[in-house]
Design brief:
By secondary structure, the protein is of the alpha+beta class. It folds into three domains: 155 residues, no CATH class; 69 residues; 149 residues, 2-Layer Sandwich (Heat Shock Protein 90). 62% of the residues lie in helices and 10% in strands. The chain has 13 helices and seven strands. The strands form two sheets. It has a five-stranded mixed sheet with strand order 2-4-5-7-6, covered by helices on one side. Helix 4 packs parallel to helix 6.
Length: 451
């Protein structure tokens, strides 16, 4: 049986890329607004003679492109190729903005560094360097074309009274510093990003290893439970046979026996009866844990009738203690889709606990309610109660609280574990509230099935 059952939907890197692309598109909206506001302020607020119309045309093209990206984002197959396309178009738009704001004299040229960092985040190391090279080709081409007057230089006299774009030394220095700054930025950004991705891959690997280990432990635990189920099931038949034989001897079917022998037989029968109870409890507990099918089909049962039937079976115990039983049921039937034996186990364990741990002349109240969503049953008693420390452990297998052991010597400590597992199988819930020496209230609820 293969233990590695991971289902990889999207890699964490791909998810990160999708989120980063969304942020990138949102950032472009800010850039569009920023260009528009800054240009207007520079032109009309600071009196800088900018070619507003060409700048606004470039801004409008960026806006249209971003709308297209927003639409394509939900339909692309390769997110990295999509990121590549966006960065390339942004480089071209940026070089036009540089041209219309002073060419190599423009301060806008520094924004190329930001896009190098974005490339390192969105793309692989190789593609980041390719994009950086593409950006440098655009910058160098613009510089050379303006230098040789192939394209007109847009001179912003308010920033540079004396133009320097045609100064060869200045041109070489701009090219040198552009190349070094962009490649160094690409190196630093990709180095940091590679380290982060390496750590992320280590975390993913560790998570997968932990999941594999958990699946293996789960499989081992199930094998252990199934083995225990088989062994326990095999024990039940001989124990029942032993009990039956002891009963026969006790009732005289094998002839007269001495009082001493009868006493030994009775004590042996009681011990055998306790063992059968323990075996049945183990079978119910393990069947709930491993999902073994129960004997019998799911039926539609009125919980109110089930409660009355359970109390009827316990009337000798309740009369012996002179307990007051208060039952409040819903006027209409409260139906559950459940295996009858399962409901019997749940109610028998819970009501028997109340009877067992409620002292003479105490009170047990059973109240059922029904809503559009669930059937709820509340069982309250005036018994010995449960301490706060024990309340957190009552659903543990084989656990019995200290005062319960004093009040009743015999007990397996499996009842509440069995009840919780069975209720969980039917999508229900159980809650226990208790105060020492004042009593306990157990509330169980099941999703409703109306007929």
């Amino acid at each position: 049986m293969p233990y590695n059952t991971h289902i990889h939907e999207k890699s964490s890197l791909e998810k990160e890329l999708v989120e980063s692309l969304s942020r990138f598109i949102n950032l472009r909206w800010i850039m569009v607004i920023g260009i528009f506001v800054t240009s207007k302020f520079a032109k009309f607020g600071l009196g800088i003679d900018l070619p507003i119309i060409p700048i606004f045309i470039v801004t409008f093209c960026i806006l249209i492109f971003n709308l297209i990206c927003l639409y394509l984002q939900k339909h692309v197959k390769s997110y990295e190729s999509f990121a590549n396309l966006q960065i390339s178009v942004d480089w071209i738009a940026l070089v036009f903005l540089v041209h219309y704001t002073g060419g190599i004299e423009s301060p806008v040229i520094f924004y190329f560094i930001f896009h190098v960092i974005i490339s390192a985040i969105l793309l692989s190391e190789k593609k980041c360097y390719l994009q950086t090279s593409f950006a440098l080709i655009l910058i160098i081409s613009l510089s050379i074309l303006e230098y040789f007057h192939v394209i007109p230089h847009v001179h912003i006299k308010e920033l540079f009274p004396n133009p320097v774009y045609d100064n060869g030394l200045y041109l070489l220095s701009i090219i040198f510093f552009s190349v070094t700054s962009l490649y160094i930025s690409a190196y630093l950004a990709t180095s940091v990003n590679n380290r982060l991705r390496k750590r992320e891959n280590e975390i993913v690997t560790l998570k997968n290893e932990i999941t594999d280990a958990y699946n293996k432990l789960e499989a081992i635990d199930r094998e252990k439970s199934e083995f225990t189920y088989k062994v326990t099931h095999e024990l039940r038949s001989p124990l029942s046979a032993i009990q039956s034989l002891l009963k026969s001897i006790e009732e005289g079917y094998a002839g007269e026996i001495s009082e001493k022998a009868r006493d030994l037989v009775i004590r042996s029968e009681k011990r055998t009866s306790f063992l059968i109870t323990l075996v049945n409890g183990l079978l119910d507990l393990i069947a709930g844990k491993i999902g073994k099918p129960k004997e019998g089909d799911i039926k539609l049962i009125d919980i109110n009738i089930a409660v009355k039937n359970t109390l009827h079976l316990m009337q000798e115990k309740t009369k012996a203690k002179n307990l007051k039983i208060i039952i409040k049921t819903t006027p209409e039937p409260s139906y559950l889709n459940i295996v009858p034996d399962d409901l019997d186990i749940i109610l028998t364990n819970l009501i028997d606990n109340s009877v067992k741990y409620t002292e003479q002349e105490g009170t047990i109240s059973i109240n059922s309610t029904i809503t559009d969503k669930e059937v709820k049953l509340e069982i309250s008693d005036t018994g010995i109660g449960i301490t706060t420390e024990d309340l957190n452990k009552i659903f543990n297998e084989f656990y019995r609280s200290k005062n319960a052991k004093v009040a009743e010597l015999r007990g397996t400590g499996l009842g509440m574990s069995i009840v919780k597992n069975l209720i969980k199988q039917y999508g229900g819930s159980i809650d226990v509230q208790s105060q020492i020496e004042k009593g306990t209230t157990v509330t169980i609820s099941f999703p409703i099935d109306k007929q």
